[in-house]
Amino acid sequence: MSQPRGQWSSHLGFILAAAGSAVGLGNLWKFPYIAYENHGGAFVLVYIAAIALVGLPIMAAEIILGRRSQQSPVGAFRVLSEGRAGGFLWKGTGLLGVLAGFVILSYYCVIAGWTVKYILMAINGQLGAMVGDGSFNEFFGSFLADGPAQTLWYSIFMGLTIGVVFFGVRGGIERVAKIMVPILFAILIGLAIYATTTDGFGQAMTFLFRPNFSELDTGAILEALGHSFFTLSLGMGAMLTYGSYMRRQDSIPKAAITICLLDTLIAILACIIMFSIIFTENMEVQKSSTILFTTLPQIFFKLPGGSLISGFFYLLVGMAALTSTISLLEVVTSFAIDELKIGRRPAVLMTGGGIYVFGLLNAWSLGANETLTSVNIIGRESTAGVLGTLDYLASNWFLPVGGFLIAIFTGWVLASRTARQEMEEGHGPLPWYAGWRALIRFVAPLVVGAIIVSVILGAEYQ
Ligand code: PHE
Fold first, then answer.
1. pTM summary value
2. Which in 210, 231, 370, 438 has the greatest CB count within 10 A?
3. Would you give the end-to-end CA distance of the chain in angstroms?
4. Distance CA 99, CA 93 (A)
5. CA 444 to CA 427: how far, in whole Å?
6. What domains lie within the chain, and their CATH numbers?
7. Is residue 238 in contact with ligand 1, taking CB distance under 6 Å?
């Protein structure tokens, strides 16, 4: 009835695809700006702890559920919860993931579309000219309010995403990840080497790596925890879906650790690059949430080779975003393939088309907001505007609730022997299995539960 399930061609193929999903606007946009707002050092440490104690165990859990069930999120929970308590709840967990994929993709592509515009502006000299004559400040506001332009860039990005997913697991997703993730690394390392030569490098390192715990408040801790979900693509079944294409001879623990390390490394490299440049120019950052699109271009052109640096930089951001958007679409598409029993191509066109139409709302509504907080992607505050509201819902509710349920399911419902078998298959005996199990049963649910409670109480923002 159904076609054979897609599979990554190698362990490296899976790692690159999953790292491509994890590395995105969350790393290059959101992390630098929240690290900046929360005074660096201590916040960075808390973030790393959140990745290690919560992100990593849930990452392994999602891959286990996917590889075990050979299904997309809804089917995975249905198959694995058979004969166990709370079947209805678990099916809902899968559906929530599909919904999250739908919603996040619809606004993520709008922001990602801007990178295409910026790459073109860097190449044709427009960006440099605007920075030179001081008209850049007005540009961003009017760009957001320009519905037809927003629709154009959004459509291009959505088209690229649909195009890649159309060609399937190996022919589309893996192929693109294998090309883009290494290029992304190369550009980042190049920019990081450049950053070490700037005067602000030392100050950037101190800012990032000298913790001052008196500057840390509860809001910052919760923000670091919440962000660890978004940045690792957790809580909605993206890693579960990618895990369902993983070969049995590959190691889940190794994969999970590598993906988490790469994601963290890239977030930190992005900070080193941006802060070195910002500190070198002694630039005052008025609105940290838009550093990436408003502050950085102005600084790039104060440096030698401004068009080249900015062109490469936005290319980097665009590629990172694309390898994330394809994973978001793949969750919804694989749901349609598995549940509606239709082929990949009609499934992609149907789900991608549906999300595209829905997302037009985001592309057209940016100008309706006077403040740029409405595009404060992944922001924790509930801001006006469609995009802000959807983002608030997805990153404060869908992902943490999804992550919480995934942790509970894997730790308490799935048989320990099943989890162990998946963790050890392709890896060999795992001495620290008990450590992982303690994290997924107790630490992750407690910590994520605390995030959810704090969102309910609205405690993280004064
Ligand atoms: N992890 C991606 C980022 O950091 C976003 C994402 C979230 C992708 C959830 C897939 C699923 O930008």
1. 0.94
2. 231
3. 55
4. 10
5. 23
6. 11-456 (1.20.1740)
7. yes
